[in-house]
Amino acid sequence: MGLRTGDQYVEGLRRRKHVEVYVLGKLVEDVTTHPFLKPSVKAFKATFDAAFDEDTRALARVKSPFIGEEINRFVHIHQGPEDLVAKVKLLRKLSHKVGTCFQRCVGWDALNTMYIVTGKLAEREGKKVYFERFVEYLKYVQKNDLALAGAMTDVKGVRSLRPHEQPNKDAYVHVVEERGDGIVVRGAKANITGVAVVDEVVVMPTRAMTEKDAEYAVAFAIPLDTPGVKVVVGRQVNDLRRFEGEIDGLPYLFNHEGLVIFEDVFVPWERVFFYKEWKHSGELVEIFASFHRQGYAGCKSGLGDVIIGASFNLARQLGIADKPHVQEKLTEMVFLNETMYSAGLAASWEGRKLLKDGGWWVNPMFANITKHLVARFPYEIARLSHDIAGGIIATGPSEADLKNPDLRKLIEKYIQGVPEFTAEDRLRMVRLLENISLSAAYLVESVHGAGSPQAQRISIQRLYDLQKAEMIARRLAGMTNAQLDQKVEPHKPSDAER
Fold first, then answer.
1. Is residue 153 within 8 Å of residue 258, measured between CB atoms?
2. Are 258 and 49 contacting, i.e. CB atoms less than 8 angstroms apart?
């Protein structure tokens, strides 16, 4: 098939048989109709519709070298820097359509990570079985255009202890039994984006490991409706707005994260892509993290565009859009937004090939710089937007007040700004700005998604060659006659490149 429509994706969710998804303590019968998860389904659906919509079709479609068919880019293996750039551009464009996280990127980054890691094991150590299994799985995913979640973050228990040292042995997902036909796993993955509304989950280790942690060094893929898998959907800011009307409930699409619990789940060997390869766990994490950090340039700049547009509209509604201090704030927001985006494009254009046959990866330094900017700039963009919008963003009347016939005329009189816009216009834009600029998708995820800021700082420190920079300075100071090499940036090779 190769390509599914958004409606076919939704229908596929209805056919799942054993899925256990809990929201606010209750089992969900149908995620496609449940008020808490339906907005998340609609956001995920946009990634499928993108392959058919005229304004995104060219970015969202690409020919697969594995099945020889046109596929959705969200299940594509990058074939060069152009693909990495197209990824960032597609994410920015889709953010304009959904106003939230569309949740499919993590599974996409997981596919590309496992392609590289299994390919390296085959090329360098002759362990071809993992690569062969993964390529067959990849073909299955592409032929069926599956919705995937990527699951890396373990619950981790006592953070100062390694997996094998934990008092709770299940604090990291691990293998509890080896069988002739597969393995049995136990544990949980936390903060997994979009997991309740996917077809399958790709599970990966979350950190570098030692030989004693071998049972935790495992990567595999399973359908979400595999027996023993439970999803507990987490809370978000203003999440009960999803049960409310169309104004207070803006945007109409939301994302979600969940705790995925594996209670002695069986995984057949053909779906195990990495096992007891503890020496390469850190490398796997580095490859995935850099992919995901690069992608944030697209989705967060796209949401930034929405916030900038909403702020400008509210300034117009108040009659202050042409005032110098407002123009200065808007210009600063644009500068911050485009800086994040530019860094992601740099990480893409400076990508590198890690396998003899493809395996294109981002520039790890620039990817970490991208994410570190994302960890800071959205908070400043949000602050400036709130400055322009005014206190009404946190105190405005509700949609129910506006619909009350005894109050509507009064609200229309006292909430309206310039006559060009109605009071309802102002409330709609205020709610849009509030729900996006204060959301988990734009703020908290910007800090902790793809690793905390400290994780990026550690990577930046490892990748920058201080000794080489010092030699450049010593040479200019006349302290040495050492010759410079051809490399422009004083960067060290990453573990993945070594």
1. no
2. no
Kindly report the CATH number assigned to the domain that includes residue 457: 1.20.140.10
Do residues 103 and 255 make contact, with C-beta atoms less than 8 angstroms apart? yes
Predicted pLDDT of residue 274: 98
Residue 302 is assigned to a structural domain of this protein: yes
Classify residue 120: in a domain, yes or no.
Answer: no
Tokens of 397: 């009347």
Identity at 221, one-letter amino acid code: A
Residue 376: domain span: 284-461
Distance CA 158, CA 152 (A): 17
Residue 367 tokens read as: 């990817």
Q: Please, what is the average pLDDT of the chain?
A: 97
| CA 18 remoteness from chain centre | 26
Q: Is 461 exposed, middle or buried (0-12, 13-18, 19+ CB in 10 A)?
A: exposed
381 belongs to a structural domain: yes
State the Cα angle at 333 between 49 and 321, rounded to 5°.
100
Domain count, the chain: 1
User: In this predicted structure, what is the pLDDT of residue 358?
Assistant: 93
If phi > 0 it is left, if psi is from -120 to 50 it is alpha, else beta; for residue 253 that is beta
Q: Could you tell me the pTM of the whole model?
A: 0.96
Sheet-wide strand order for 257-268: 26-27, 20-23, 229-233, 257-268, 182-193, 174-179
Identify whether 434 is part of a domain: yes
Amino acid at 80: G
**Which amino acid would we find at residue 89?**
K
Instruction: List the 218-223 sheet strands across, edge first.
Output: 148-151, 200-203, 218-223, 272-275
Query: pLDDT-based confidence at 298, cuts 50/70/90?
Result: very high
Q: CB–CB of 141/129 below 8 Å?
A: no
Strands (E) in 316-434, as ranges, are 352-355, 358-361
Say how many CA atoms lie within 13 Å of 352 toward its Cβ.
Answer: 13
> Rounded distance, CA 258 to CA 261, Å?
9
Q: What is the pLDDT of residue 233?
A: 98
d(CA 102, CA 118) in angstroms, rounded, equals 27
Q: Is the dihedral of CA 217, 220, 222, 227 positive or negative?
A: negative
Tell me which residues are annotated as active site: 101, 105, 193, 257, 292, 296, 299, 445
For residue 338 the two structure tokens come to 């485009």
Question: Taking Cα atoms as reference points, which of 362, 269, 285 lies closest to residue 117?
Answer: 285
Q: Are strands 257-268 and 182-193 parallel, antiparallel or unpaired?
A: antiparallel
